[in-house]
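Complex record, two chains
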Amino acid sequence: MPDKKIKLDIYSKNTWCPGCSNFGILAVLKNVISSLIKDGVKKENIVLVSGIGCSSKIIDYINLNSFSSLHGRPVVSAEGIKLGNPDLKVIVCAGDGGTYNEGISHLIHAAKRNIDITVLIHNNRNFALTTSQFTAVSPKGFKGRSTPEGSVEEPFNPLELMLSSNASFIARGYAFKLNHLGRLIKEGINHKGFSFIDILQPCISFFDETDSYKERIYEVEEDNLDSKKQALKKIEKWDYESEKSKIPIGIFYKEKRSAYEEALLGKLNPSKRNRKINLKKIID
Amino acid sequence: MMKKDYSILIGGEAGQGSRKAGLMIAKLFSELGYNIFIYDDYQSLIRGGHSFSHIRVSDKKVLSHREKIDFLLALDKNTVDKHKKDLDKEGIIIYNSDEISLRNKNAVGIEMDKIVEEFKGTSIMGNTALMAGFAKIIGIDWKIIEKLFKKEFKKYQKINLKIARKSFDSLENIIKVKRINKKGSILLTGNEAISLGAVKAGLDFYFAYPMTPASGILHYLAKHKKEFNVAVSQLENEVGIVNAALGAAYAGSRTMVGTSGGGFALMTEGLSLAAQSEIPLVIVESQRMSPGSGVATYNGQGDLLFALTAGHGDILRFVIAPGDAEESFYWSGKILNLSWKYQTPSILLVDKEVSESTFSFDEKVLEKVKYEKPLFWNKKGSYSRYKNTKKGISPLAFPGEKDQVIKSNSYEHDELGITVEDEKSVEKMQKKRLRKFEEMKKEVDKLEAVKIFGNKNSQKAIIAWGSTKGPAKEIAEKLGIKMIYPIVLQPFPEKQMRDALKGVKKIALIETNGTGQMGEVLARFGVKIDKKILKYNARPFLPEEIGRELSKF
């Protein structure tokens, strides 16, 4: 339970559909943040970043620093925030549409450069807020408003993409497995480097996979976490297309690598540097 | 009277080092007290083709090159073929006599290949032989050359000096170029001046994706980031650049980004986000010619209307167009300060001619820029990012502020930063921003937003902006007509423009674009143009060209 003293509640009105699986993610996130604060992380140093879509409304529902970015851009906004002040803990909450469609290049490059931010994808496998169209992780044949006869594209596997992009922490969670998800998120945030967690989040209005997920989801064995080979094997168990295969959740890959902001900035904190400069001396 | 205004053209294939040699020749003249302007012309290729630098040196301040050349320094035959038509009657050609033979009486050959071979140099060192030979011809002391070469060539210094000496000794002195002053001022490109101005005004972080002609800023700041103690990052694309810059500014870093028209097009969503979220953002937009990929390494002023209107929604932004290195320094610093004062997007609009040309730079200008403190939160009560103030400017605070939350929002929001949609709240925030726009307009009245050159009492006036300043000012002064030069282009300095136009009966507009975009801006404020002098072959105006057009005016 979140600590009341930490005051994460706020006056805003929640506009998610009643019963939305995002409520689960919200509760888990608040718990994790409370626990981080109890561990000594300063509340004022935590920043939530979101884009556009149901997922992104979450920042209005937590009394924390937040940055609402544009559709597809929260990952790179978060990178800017981390680079601007490396003392901050930066957590992205974004959807599959924004991240895997509009902003895919940012996700790949953030993983590649291993910047120390955490990306939580509220993956409901469709554009929900725009009344349902297919995304990069909707199954082939998905009937949305732009594809009434079914989408003709096959989805890609974002975990596989993250593995080949050199993400240093790759996990998948489930919005209705709260304790498990909480562990993943906390471990992701505490991981030094880029952490990526795809959260299967059934859309109860447009693509309700709750029953199917309940049957198929299982916790993956978290061993040999620094082996890409092993990770790929586990990740390939489900391709986001099959409606029958089992779906592993948990941490798939984790490695220690130097973080981008440290490599780029060294000890410099751009937001706290001395701004006085004697140019004349330098030019001469 | 002794001539004190020379034009030197040095050219060759890309990879032969004409640009570096041109800059060294400029430094040689700067050492003798001359004012410098270098126009660099190069193609979008790595090897081959034709590149040249046109170096103008004068006892007066010069901001443009001219048609006629006094010294044509040819690293290859192509340079002679292309430029000998522009040689002055008294002009001298200096060429590689191992490659071509010229019969002109005023042509001097240097055995460039042989000299380079003798000291086992590489072919690029032909430019060393050419520079030293030229120095001998114009009567410069060996000591001055030796000093310059030692400073400029850290690698292969010995070989270069031997080649230079051999070439120097092989030629006769023809004319004597006089020292006119103790020492000239430093030389800076527009891009370097932009970088320095921003650094002086407290730049913390420069983000960019490479694009000519703005890349010089990225290269210069990356090279000197340790001395300046600033951060520099190249990210995946311009969309990433602008959004990362906004993130960093939200976190408390003063940021700047740089690009050309195509990259700027990608940045417009970020410009709009900056306006809505009220995050300071400075975009340097260095224009090049034509839409699309255009003429990548050549000049144009075709993005004016785009810069003034880019971004969805009601946005007022600062658009400032400096026309030389000193102005670039000053306004780069100023726009960063203004952006933070008003928490607004802003655009420093330059072009290839300003960005990549080299200018003599008066060091006194360095003192004109300082870090100006923006409106910070006074740490009393509880913080609201979008506090509804009288002037529409809400005090700044950054994440890390104990017991406060800093909520930045791209959606319409309430004072704390929570998303709203109801009409009352939306209108309230719109009005807050509109009040801020009024303050920005008042700010422009306090700036020297419009300058006047030439004959202030003339009834004939020319209007030029940005890089066209150099050639237009020179010809206006020569012909004794008035030149009106707007620098701040948004919010438009209406009052200053009206004052400048007092007594003017006829106006000619000078721009390097095809449609006369400044003319459209002026029309909005009721200013009628009588004649448009436009150039759109991707090359900058020369004073003589404007002069010929004005003779019919």
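Note: The mean pLDDT of chain B is 96.
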